[in-house]
Each structure stands twice: as structure tokens, then as C-alpha cells.
Amino acid sequence: MTLITGLAVHDVRFPTAAAGDGSDAINRGDYSATYVVLETAGGVRGFGLTFTNGRGNELTCAAVEALGHHVVGHDVGELCTAEGARTLTADVQLRWLGPEKGVIHMAAGALLNAVWDLRARLAGVPMWRLLAELPTADLVAAVDFRHISDAITPEEAAALLDRGLEGYAERLERATREGFPAYTTSVGWLGYDDEKVRSLTRQAVKDGWTAVKMKVGGPIDDDVRRAGIIRSEIGPGSLLMMDANQVWDVGEAIANMERLVAFDPYWIEEPTHADDVLGHAAIQRALGERCRVATGEVGANRVIFKQLLQAGAIGIMQVDACRVAGVGEVLAELLLAARFGVTVCPHAGGVGLCEYVQHLSFFDYLRVGRSMEGRMIEYVDHLHEHFTDPVRVAGGRYLLPERPGYSVEMRPESIAHYAYPAGPAWSA
Amino acid sequence: MTLITGLAVHDVRFPTAAAGDGSDAINRGDYSATYVVLETAGGVRGFGLTFTNGRGNELTCAAVEALGHHVVGHDVGELCTAEGARTLTADVQLRWLGPEKGVIHMAAGALLNAVWDLRARLAGVPMWRLLAELPTADLVAAVDFRHISDAITPEEAAALLDRGLEGYAERLERATREGFPAYTTSVGWLGYDDEKVRSLTRQAVKDGWTAVKMKVGGPIDDDVRRAGIIRSEIGPGSLLMMDANQVWDVGEAIANMERLVAFDPYWIEEPTHADDVLGHAAIQRALGERCRVATGEVGANRVIFKQLLQAGAIGIMQVDACRVAGVGEVLAELLLAARFGVTVCPHAGGVGLCEYVQHLSFFDYLRVGRSMEGRMIEYVDHLHEHFTDPVRVAGGRYLLPERPGYSVEMRPESIAHYAYPAGPAWSA
């Protein structure tokens, strides 16, 4: 038993909006973190964050404070169970502000990820290893099956996790040797002009990338032209993903993709509003085998993911590490994906998301999905220098993390410099 | 053109949790308001609120501050259009915190309702009349069709609203004479024991109520016993509604309702998680003609309502006045309901919700749904004394509001007394 004795939350913002990095059809953000530090009597600390897009980061910080009493004074192990997590997600007063979505749920994600980070640090292992080597019963106990039991039961989850023990050593050996496939999103932000897109794509190919993502959702003729540039630079053998960031209506998505499928996209990401399960299903039906539908970065919770799977709405599930209620709810989503045979390619970028989700993909490979086929982790080459244990990416692949924890501990000097609004980066 | 020149937000909380009023399967709240006051140079003020459940009200207040710059310095008329509302709901940084859900969206609701209140006060008419007598083109311009155009187009909305002009005078005469049917939720909170339920129900019948709602979602045997008490008190001719407040899983909801249909419920409200469109559809299919499924009080936005209708998941749509982005988004929901032929019975109770939604039901009757058949407004006899223009309910019916605006202006002495945390109600 390890009691959490203290909690601090930091509002950390990076002024990225001005450069157009991260610009897409619907966002233009200052990448920010609601950064949580948990203390224990023994001195080991836990670190978690939720990613936000700039303004409003004070709201997720305040939500962390509002939920803090469910964490401080409580036991790490207890908070890593479904019942423990539910003290945050089903608080009899705060639940009204969601339920299980938006500001309050993102704050729960930062807190519960910090708790799980603490657990991994206490065990002295990286998060992927903690999870991959936990007994099946402990993993099942971490999943809140409430409201998803019509799609997956604890018994079915246990069977999936037990199956994941077979061949574990071989997969671990392969993951250690080969790492995990990645793709880059840095070539095709909407804020970049054609020549910048072309030169970045060319450089990406030189750097070994065989999978790249572009933003779409501007005027469709521009999207088509940019898709042509990128496809011509990467050649027919590499993967091209497209991301509309929810800007299209359902009919518009279908019509625009009728033109864009000519460039053989591996997936179309967020073709319409993130809550629109039936809309995604309609788009996937219209595209058929020609293109997979992908979504998840703003998927509110396991109930939305459950329905996307039940409706056959997606071919790619893009779990996010900190929009949902931390590791426990991500486990639910990975198990649901496996149950429905859908490929998981986590959402990353922002700040700290690459650091987080590498652990999820390695765990998924080792214990749940058991395959790297068609699976990739998003990679954006921004802001890694602010972390004490940044991702290591080489030749288009993530290398297996080695240090204990969930890899989102930030450097003290970065926290101080980018603290909002008092840090030098903002007060100057 | 009327510019908004100032904005104030108040954190107002009523200590209701201790009494068990408002207790249900999932909430035990201190009914609270994120209360917004807008100023204009001419001195006319606008009032809006979003309802919360106690702790966390500081988050919606802070979200109002975060969105305030889209309102202060802007024109009332412009903010009453879809494009105006979208400056709040699609802010390039704040949208990430939703999108269009939870804390940030509820704050948009408080602000935009205050803008619409201001518009009605400037016109010198109650909200229902402002809306019911607006030209069709102005109403259509207030609706954001983005992400719902696959279910309703501006042309279809215009046709519905034009049709609502026929027979308008007769309906207005009837509404003025008869008011609008109501039901009471005050008899069957989960926190009440059997004898309190029985005596409250008996009193409600004496007071003229012919429709009452009970909470379910406790142990099923208790629910069955309480349903028996209430049905025996109201007799076979009155309506009994049941409300599970999302506590059941899908299979559990179906199994429990197999027992509860014996008491002939008019609807089962929130049988499972509010985001679970497919789950509601499965429950409605299982119940068939025996009981309608109802939901809406935490329906996040028009995209969720669209899908509930597309999936045939509900027979009753319970719009909430301030969880979504104010009058404009409620208009979208009312038009969607009419398009799919589904009955609207707004969610009320809490604090200020009865004051708000009476305007919506009268407008719906006068211009959109054009019927009172099977339609009712929820009524809870709490906290009306804090408003300057409280609802008037007699013989189980709401009377038509007469004073200008949206009826949620609070008395200054109530704001001062219940201000959190400094007011005497909390600092004592």
C-alpha cells in the first residue's frame, strides 16, 4: 500500500500557434499541458498530463484541483482499479459536467495517468512492461465494464489477455530488436504552402519514413493538389494517411473522398464530427474497401469507442492516452478493439502524447493485438526536448522505452520557462 | 445593432444535497448556477445560466470567462446567428476541450442564452414570443446545420417553420387559455422512503397532477415496490414516468424494464449511458410498443440528438435549455425532433430549468411541433423563489409567461446569499 500524500498541477503552454505548426482544418493551438505531479511519503513521484490546445488549459488545471481529493490520501493500487477510477469519473456532483467527457474527464486522465506512472516507478519498470506483465486478473480489475458489458465482458477480456501470454517472449524479443512502426505528421499541416509540403515530404523520405500523414479539409481542389504532391514524392509503395479534423459533414466527406481515394489513402481520419458514430459508419460504408475510416483523438470515452466498433464505423481506432480517464479506460478501448478485430494506431503529436502512446502500442503488441501488421504510432517531431525521457525514433520506428514510468515527466526548467502566464516564455 | 459592453459571472450554489432532494441513482447535488449577466450601453441587461450539480460550478464559471471575449464587444444580432454562435463553439483553441460538450459547451450555453435573453428584452417580449414570431429566415439563420445536414437541411427546416405559421393564432389562443401540460418529479426521489413517496404522491394527486415521475435504478426489487406504491396512488388513468439516470448497462436495462413495464410507464428515461445511441436503440427495440425510451438532459449536442433520432432510439426527446449552446442549438434539436416525428418533453428541475424550458415548449407548440398531445414539461417545486419571474404552475399546467426575456433573472438577494464560497449560505 502506497498513499499519495500530495498533488501539484502546472499550467504549461508552448507558443506554437504563431508558426502554423499543428494547424489543421479546425485547430490552431498553443500546445499545452495540464501537468500533474503526485507525491508519496517514500519520495517516489508520479507524473501525468493532459494535452490541451492553449486557451482553456486553466480549466483542465482547475478540474484537476476539483478532483484532487479523490487522489490525495488514497492508495495507488486502489486507484488503479475500476472502482478507484470511478471515484473520479462518477463523482456524484462532478459527473454532471461530463458525464465522462470534456474538461472533467481529461483532468481525470491526467490524474489517473500520474497514478499509474507512480505505480510503474514504484515497480521500477516502464509502463509497457508493467502492463504487459501484470496478471490477467489485475488488468481486468483495472477496466470499468460499466456501460460496455454489451460489447465485452470481463470473461472475454480475460480470455484475450490470457491469449496474449502465448508467444510473449518472442514478441518482446522482436519489439526490442525492431521497435514499432511510426508515421510522420510533420509534412502536411494546412498552414504550410505547396513548396514547404514538397520539401518536407522529400526530406521525410530521405529520413526513412515510409508512412506520412497530410491534413485535408481545406478547399477540396487544394487538398487534391497537395495529395498529388505528397503521393508523387513518396511513391506508390509508401502509406499516405489523410486527416480532415472533423470539418466535413457526412455527405461532404463522402463526396470529397470520392476524389481523394485516387491517391490511395491508407485511412481518412476524423472525416466528420467526433461524436457522430452513425456518420462515420455511413462514410465507411460508402468507401468500402477503398479506404479505412479512422478516429479517436477526441473520442470522449469507452462508450463512444464501443459504438464505433459495434456499428462497423472504423477500420482504425486511434486511442488517445489522456482524453479518457487514463490507463484503465485505454485498456478498455484496446480490449474492445481486439474483440472487434480493429487495428489500433494511437493518436500522438501535441505535447507528451508520443511519449505516452509508445507504451500503449508496445503493450498492445505484446499482450492484446499481438501484431504490428498495419499498425503505426503517430510521430510529430515537436517539443520532445522538454521531457526527461523523450521518445527515441530512428528510421521511421519507435524504440522500446527503457526507463521506469510513463515517460511524461517534464524537465523542471521547461516547466518554469513555459509556465502560464508567469513564465518567461509568456510574460516577456 | 446593440453591442454587449460588459459581462459578469456569478457562482451561485444552493445546499440541496443534505436533504436528499434531487437524489437519484447517480447524482446527489447542491443545485447550482453559473449565472451570467450581460451589459449594454443602453442599460438593458441580459441574463443566462447553466445548471450544475454543486462542486465544479467554478469550472463552468471559469469557462464563461474563457469564452467571454467572443461576446463582449460583439453585437447581439450577430451572436444570435449560427456564425456568431460558432465563434464560441468552434474557437480554434477551446474546441479541443469538447468538442461541443461538457464544461466548455455548458458555458457557451449560459452565454448564448444571456444573449438571446437580451434580444428578447430589447424587443420587449417573452422568449417564446420572440421565437414564435420571428421570420422563418431568421430562425433558420440561428441554426448551425454543420454536422447535421445529413438529417435536416436549411430548406427542410424552413418548410417546417413556415408550416408553423398556419393556425398560429388559434394555438396562441389555446396556449393562453389552457397553459401547457406539466408533470411532477417531486414524489419519487431515491433518497425518500416508501411512506414519504406514498404521502407525496397522494398529495400530488390532490393538487391536480395526472402525470408523475419516479426515480429507478436502485435495487430492482425496491424499484418494483415503489412503482407499485405510486401506480396504486395515481390510479390507472394517470401517467407514470420512470428515470434511471444512466445507471444501467444495456442488458440490465432491458431485463429490469421487463419487470417495470407491468406498471405501464409512459417512458423510461436515461436507461443507460447518455452517449450510448446504439444502446438506447437496442433498449427501444426490446421494449417496442410497451414503453418509450426518453433521454436528453445530458445529451451533449445536436450531433448526439441527430443520431438518437436516426437510429430510432427514442420516443421522447428531452431537450435541456443550457447543456447545449443556447437557444440556437435548442432550435436545431426541436427541428430535428419535428423532422423525425418525435415528441419533445424538456428536461427541467434543478435551478432555473423550469423557468427556461417553458418558453421552449410553448414555442415548439406554437411554431414547430404544433401539438400538446403526449407533451409535458417537467416540473419540480424547488428554488423558484430565487427568480424575478418564476414559473406559474396551476392544476398541473404551466401558464404562458408574460414578462420579457427568458425568465432566469435571479433576485439580487439570492445571488448575494448563495454566492459560493463567500455568501452567508456557505460561509456560515
Note down, in words, how this protein is organized.
The first copy, chain A, has 428 residues and is an alpha/beta fold. In chain A, 42% of the residues lie in helices and 15% in strands. Chain A folds into 2 domains: 4-156 and 414-427, Enolase-like, N-terminal domain (Enolase-like, domain 1); 168-411, TIM Barrel. Chain A has helices at 57-67, 76-79, 82-89, 102-123, 127-132, 136-141, 154-163, 168-178, 194-206, 220-234, 250-260, 277-287, 302-310, 326-340, 353-368, 412-418, 424-427, and strands spanning 4-13, 32-40, 46-52, 180-188, 211-215, 239-243, 265-269, 292-295, 316-317, 343-344, 377-379, 393-394, 397-398. In chain A, α10 links the parallel β5 and β6 (239-243). In chain A, α8 (168-178) runs antiparallel to α15, α9 packs parallel to α10 (220-234) and α13 packs parallel to α14. The interface between A and B is large, with 62 and 61 residues.
